[in-house]
Amino acid sequence: MSEKAQFVLLAQYNALMNRRLLAAAGRLSDASLGADRGAFFKSVIGTLNHIMVGDLLWLNRFATHPNAYPALAPLAEIAKPTQLDEILHADLDAFEQSRYALDDLIIRWCDQLQARDLDDPLRYTNYKGESHVKRLGDLILHMFLHQVHHRGQATTLLSQAGVDFGDTDLPEILPELENV
After folding, report:
1. If we measure between CA atoms, which residue out of 173, 154, 141, 174 comes closest to residue 16?
2. CB 122 within 8 A of CB 142
3. DSSP-assigned letter for residue 77
4. Cβ count near 169 (within 10 Å)
5. In sequence order, which ranges of the chain are alpha helices (DSSP H)?
6. Which pLDDT tens digit goes with each residue over 7-36?
């Protein structure tokens, strides 16, 4: 499987897991969603927002690539987060709408990625103001791993609140091999 195909798969997996995560979070009261549970970003809703903040920060960096992928154009209409713990949406319904739209954007963007671009350097400034130049494909992989890491935290918080998230395994969406 090519690197681009892996990113398309990860984008689809990301969308599926986010839908499941939001369905599970929807079983909690607003008070329980916002309760400080001692996690990096305190609460379930804080953790969900942090994942979105990370996605927006990285996608805005990716939008500076010279290829100017059309799928990333809508980012210009979305306010850029200024803090890693920023609460973009305290209300779960509003969060869901933004999350689903962002997941669709990520899928469209991964479909548009050109394999030749993945080796390109991408210059960016992190939230501390430090400048870096890294390989685009490696940074895209980081974005997906960041999502997985914090979704793992969110599923733990949900479990602590008595909500069973269910299966998170990638093989469930991998295609079956035929004639093997």
Report:
1. 173
2. no
3. G
4. 9
5. 3-25, 30-34, 44-62, 92-112, 136-160
6. 999 999 999 999 999 999 999 999 999 999
User: Which of helix, strand or coil describes residue 135?
Assistant: strand
Residue bearing tokens 């942090």: 50
**173 touches 12 (CB < 8 A):** yes
Q: Is the pLDDT of residue 140 over 90?
A: yes
Q: How far apart are CA 175 and CA 180, in angstroms?
A: 13
Give the separation between CA 79 and CA 56, rounded to whole angstroms.
Answer: 9
Q: Which residues are within 8 A (CB) of 67 and not within 5 positions of it... i.e. 6 or more apart?
A: 114, 117
Could you tell me the residue ranges of all domains in the chain?
A: 3-172
Express each pLDDT in 35-47 by its tens digit. 999 999 999 999 9
Q: Which of 56, 40, 128, 69 is nearest to 99 (CA)?
A: 56
What is the fold of 3-172? Four Helix Bundle (Hemerythrin (Met), subunit A) (1.20.120)
Output the pTM of the full model.
Answer: 0.94
